[in-house]
TrEMBL record:
InterPro entries: Orn/Lys/Arg_deCO2ase_major_dom, Orn_Lys_Arg_decarboxylase-I, Prn/Lys/Arg_de-COase_C. This is Aminotransferase class I/II-fold pyridoxal phosphate-dependent enzyme. It comes from Mammaliicoccus lentus. Keywords: Aminotransferase, Decarboxylase, Lyase, Pyridoxal phosphate, Transferase. Transmembrane segments: none annotated. The keyword Transport does not apply. GO terms for molecular function: transaminase activity. Its cofactor is pyridoxal 5'-phosphate.
Length: 447
């Protein structure tokens, strides 16, 4: 089956999206006003993303909800924004602070630029088992730090007191980069958390496509005006972004910004309550964290994988599952949208919860929370072995359960038995892991 045929078959099933991207099968926002004929190039009048002087410059000037920051379109996703910032500081002496839940793009950038980093001490959520914040930085020497990076929010929508950390770093003159991939909708109304930009973060990268109605790969970087490294960031953006930027993606970002500025959350709040009540009435448990756009759904007698399968049997596709939960990413419902909400409710009411009891114990990784040093390592000679035989071997790859894309084993790191067992359990419960294929992994050849 071709990719086209597979996507078409999912559409033919009238599938319902409770996952990213934020346009939810083109039922949310203004993307229907666009058409494929708008897939154009730098002809007369359409300006140049790499040197915007006309219509793209005017478009960027309308991204003005944060007056102290300049906006830049990213057509290669949030990843290219993160890469550009880390490249921009590679000539500087000093350390880079990163969170333990740094996205793989951060580790890739450190590897490409051969820069070491210091892990910040972390906290772990009792609810999700994921990193949910950074502990006090008082134990770290901040006098030699050239950049600090935060993840805010985490994949599940959990946030922390990032403002206090930003203010402490400002006292030391340290610029802050916030990977706000899952918070592009933050601040869209008082019902949602605020963006870290409101707490004076210097550089914030948002994946508009994840929660706002924009095309996949469409992101926006906000850079504080007169930031000393701004010019270098923009130079690297020019080098790292495609020389043929998508006008469809840029236009969708413009439309998503317009959507953000005119959004009214009343319908969203009402439909969210109906959805939660319906899920509970059929016997499911529903939890929510700081971000009301995310819902955790579970059943006391089923694993998250089993719940996911039941939803997919009704052509309801969710964002992810772990051992205990499925994660729903809700649409930003609005007047005039075409999201099939009544169909969704009917499908949920018809779910066949013919469950069977299964011993449950969430796939739990023993997450380190203390500070430490990360040094990129190149592994030249590698062999492939069965995962079960890999305890105490040196990994030749980054091992990344995806989503959320947070490495649990880094290239050059010894493979611990408890992490290996968690990975096997994750895979057996239906999880996908980058770096592991058919339960095999590449390790350093030490012979």
């Amino acid at each position: 089956m071709s990719l086209y045929d597979k996507i078409q078959s999912i559409q033919d099933e009238n599938s319902i999206s409770l996952h990213v991207p934020g346009h939810h099968n083109n039922t949310i926002g203004y993307l229907k006003e666009m058409n494929l004929g708008m897939d154009m190039t730098e002809i007369t009048g359409l300006d140049d993303l790499h040197q915007p002087e006309e219509v793209i410059r005017e478009s960027l000037m309308k991204m003005d909800r944060y007056p102290n920051h300049d906006a830049r379109y990213l057509v290669n996703g949030t990843t290219v924004g993160i890469l550009s910032v880390i490249y921009a500081v590679k000539h500087l002496d000093g350390d880079i602070l990163i969170p333990r839940n740094a996205h793989k793009s951060i580790y890739n950038a450190l590897s490409l630029t051969n820069q070491k980093a210091i892990w910040m001490p972390m906290t772990v959520s009792e609810e999700t088992g994921q990193y949910d914040g950074v502990k006090s930085l008082d134990t770290l020497d901040l006098s030699n730090v050239k950049l600090a990076i935060f993840t805010y929010p985490n994949y599940y929508g959990e946030v922390f007191d990032i403002q206090s950390h930003i203010q402490l770093l400002k006292a030391y003159g340290v610029p802050t980069l916030v990977d706000e991939a899952h918070g592009a909708h933050f601040g869209i109304s008082s019902y949602f958390p605020q963006s870290s930009i409101m707490y004076e973060a210097d550089i914030v990268v948002q994946s508009y496509h994840k929660t706002l109605p924009a095309l996949t790969m469409g992101s926006v970087m906000y850079i504080r005006k007169e930031l000393p490294i701004q010019q270098r960031i923009e130079e690297y953006l020019t080098m790292l972004q495609t020389s043929s930027p998508s006008y469809l993606i840029m236009t969708s970002l413009e439309k998503a910004e317009l959507f953000y500025k005119h959004y009214n959350d009343e319908l969203f709040k009402r439909l969210r309550m109906v959805l939660i009540q319906t899920l509970k009435e059929v016997g499911l448990e529903v939890g929510s964290l700081a971000d009301p756009l995310k819902l955790l759904v579970s059943h006391e007698k089923m694993t998250g994988e089993q719940v996911k399968q039941i939803f997919e049997q009704s052509n309801i596709y969710i964002e992810l599952n772990d051992e205990k939960y499925i994660l729903l990413v809700l649409p930003l419902w609005h007047e005039g949208d075409s999201f099939p909400f009544e169909v969704l409710i009917n499908k949920i009411n018809s779910l066949k919860l013919d469950y069977y009891y299964q011993e449950k114990g969430r796939a739990k990784f023993d997450l380190p929370v203390t500070s430490g040093i990360y040094v990129p390592i190149e592994v030249k000679d590698a062999i492939t072995i069965d995962l079960v035989d890999a305890v105490n071997k040196i990994s030749a790859v980054d091992v990344i359960p995806y989503p959320p894309g947070i490495p649990v084993i880094l290239k050059g790191e010894y493979i611990k038995g408890d992490v290996l067992n968690s990975l096997l359990h994750w895979i057996d419960s239906g999880g996908r892991v980058e770096g592991i294929i058919n339960k095999q992994i590449k390790i350093k050849d030490e012979h």
